[in-house]
Design goal:
The protein is α/β, with parallel strands linked by helices and 590 residues long. Among the domains are: 100 residues, Roll (Urease, subunit C, domain 1); 119 residues, Diaminopimelate Epimerase, Chain A, domain 1 (Roll), CATH 3.10.310.70. The chain has 19 helices and 24 strands. Bound molecules: zinc ion. Zinc ion binds next to loops.
Length: 590
């Protein structure tokens, strides 16, 4: 352990030195054009020029490059030396920064931009899903059953069958039953997680494995759904999922690492160069660290550490220590993650007013306001950022109140508090985001009109006007940060997210004109929310998020120019090339 700690420190030190050197280099480049102000500066000038003349290792030329840098939004070419961008400009300017050994990539007019930063993801969970049964786009109970049957046949030795991605709206009457699965697989436990991750669907064998009954106790909010005879139907909401999940054989560390490697390849193929894990613990961080040490961590990772209502000030101090231990540009811990409520579809989101289709219920939060206030204030004081999952308008208000309380306790500083999801919110709370400097961290893919029927029925027409209110938040001065929430979503692809943000339509254009089209945002806002804002949301805007000299060279080349496409075609975009840390990591033919 000691040895490992030392290694880590050495690594952080190397990262720090690299960072300082990089920063110095930027300063040199930027000052090279200015007339020296002081004698001391003048005496250093020849060395500056020599440093600037060191050629690029990689040059991208003949491109249409959206830099994300408001001071220079477009460029033709980029020069990269090692892991950093050294120049951005015209072909001629970049030619001047190149040498004999520079690898030159001709973009042939192609579109490039900063790599995507998926600012809210559960990457390890998504990684494990890659070997499970994918039910996305199944669209009906019959198709779910037929895919499950095939999967069972293909995996005869698997003691458990796990799947994910089913949607509430596909099942006539709302929720499926254990018998629906038993009809296809009854010889071993089957557990199928809904697309949003908040509901589980078990067969009879899986319920038996978890000893699930009307009397089962579980942590937090949730429900064991019962039939008329008080027998579990197979549906487990929120915390009740733990009853069965706890019995699923846990993957070994090696299996988790292999799964991460597959997910890293997937991310590279989608142009994702940074992720921010919305939850995790030390073992997750150590797994990423393993990959980093083997030089296999091909994206930049932030991990927020999960906390709950029982978290103490001592726990927060331990997390702050972990954050000091991991603070590099490739792997960092900087935040805590709180779950203020559940989701609208299962009536577990905490609402100010009752659900439209269930007037006796308005959901609830596992946190009291006082607990939330305490944990937020402690974390903020300890220098940790706070991310709060809040989907119902009441949960959003509780989060805002907790942030306001922390500002009163600790003074207003650059805390960059984050609220995650914000699927509904009271009109009165919209201006509070800008007032309190709270980031609106949201998932355009969650507003895909193919998945909102059950949502809209539960929320009702009044609240639906402010469903996923990106545009209203933007107009009110809030900073938008976009992400996927993978695997709790129908697609991890940022291109699907971009499509939804701009269109609020399915990939086949439904509904015409878009769902609550007033809340659409434009392409520029969308791309910034997936890149620059993601870096800002993790306090990393000084080192990445835009294409400008001094920043880390995480750049992607796309199959088409999104600014010149029909908006309805945005979902067809693909990454042709992913450059990570100055190296071409992924490449396919156009
Ligand atoms: Zn999440």
């Amino acid at each position: 352990m000691d040895q490992e700690m030392k290694k880590r420190r050495t690594l952080s030190l190397i990262a720090l030195v690299a960072l300082v050197l990089g920063a110095g280099l930027t300063a040199r480049l930027q000052s090279a054009g200015k007339a020296p102000q002081k004698a001391q500066a003048a005496s250093k000038a020849p060395r500056k020029a020599a440093a600037a003349r060191q050629p690029a290792t990689l040059a991208l030329v003949n491109g249409r490059i959206w830099t994300g840098n408001p001071a220079q939004p477009w460029a033709q070419a980029v020069a990269i030396r090692d892991e950093k961008i050294i120049a951005v400009g015209t072909n001629a300017q970049i030619a001047a920064a190149s040498g004999l050994l520079t690898q030159r990539v001709d973009l042939k007019g192609g579109f490039a931009m900063p790599g995507f930063n998926d600012a809210h993801i559960h990457f390890g969970g998504g990684a494990l899903r890659l070997s499970q049964l994918d039910l996305n786009d199944a669209n009906s109970l019959e198709e779910i059953q037929s895919r499950l049957k095939k999967y069972a046949e293909e995996n005869p030795g698997a003691p458990w069958l796990l799947g994910y991605g089913w949607q509430y709206s596909w099942i006539p009457g709302g929720l499926p039953t254990r018998q629906d699965i038993d009809r296809v697989v009854s010889d071993r436990p089957v557990y199928l997680t809904a697309y949003d991750g908040h509901t589980g669907w078990a067969n009879t064998k899986a319920l038996a494995a978890g000893n699930v009954s009307a009397l089962s106790k579980f942590a937090g909010i949730g429900e064991v759904v019962l039939d008329a005879d008080r027998v579990p139907t197979g549906i487990l909401k929120e915390g009740a999922q733990g009853l069965v999940r706890a019995k699923i054989p846990q993957p070994t560390r090696e299996e988790r690492r292999d799964a991460l490697r597959r997910a890293l390849q997937l991310a590279a193929s989608l142009g994702i160069t940074s992720i921010q894990n919305a939850g995790g613990d030390r073992s997750d961080v150590e797994l990423y660290h393993d990959l980093l040490e083997r030089n296999q961590l091909t994206l930049r990772v932030s991990v927020a550490i999960s906390v709950g209502p029982k978290t103490t000030q001592q726990d927060i101090a331990r997390i702050a220590a972990l954050a000091r231990e991991f603070s590099g540009p490739r792997l960092r811990v900087g935040a805590i993650k709180m779950m203020m409520d559940g989701v609208i579809e299962t009536h577990t989101a905490a609402m100010l007013e009752p659900y439209s289709d269930r007037p006796e219920s308005r959901g609830s939060s596992p946190w009291t306001q006082e607990q939330a206030n305490n944990v937020v204030a402690w974390a903020d004081k300890a220098g940790l950022q706070v991310m709060i999952h809040a989907i119902g308008d009441r949960a959003v208000r509780m989060a805002l109140d907790a942030f306001e309380h922390a500002q009163k306790e600790n003074g207003k500083k650059d805390s960059r508090f984050r609220i995650e999801h914000i699927e509904t919110l009271a009109a009165a709370d919209i201006p509070r985001f800008a007032q309190l400097g709270v980031l609106a961290s949201m998932e355009p893919i969650h507003a895909d009109p193919a998945t909102i029927d059950v949502w809209a029925k539960a929320a009702g027409p009044e609240r639906t006007q402010r469903a996923f209110a990106w545009r209203q938040l933007e107009k009110a001065g809030a900073r938008l940060v976009f992400s996927s929430d993978w695997p709790s979503c129908i697609s991890v692809s940022p291109f699907r997210g971009v499509h939804n943000a701009v269109n609020r339509q399915t990939t086949d254009g439904k509904p015409p004109g878009g769902w609550i089209p007033e809340q659409r945002v434009n392409l520029e806002t969308t791309l910034a929310a997936y890149t620059r804002a993601g870096a800002y949301a993790a306090f990393e805007e000084q080192i990445k998020g835009t294409i400008e000299p001094g920043k880390l060279a995480d750049i992607i080349v796309l199959s088409a120019d999104p600014f010149k496409m029909r908006p309805g075609e945005l979902h067809t975009l693909r990454a042709l090339k992913t450059i990570f840390n100055g190296n071409v990591l992924y490449e396919v033919a156009p």
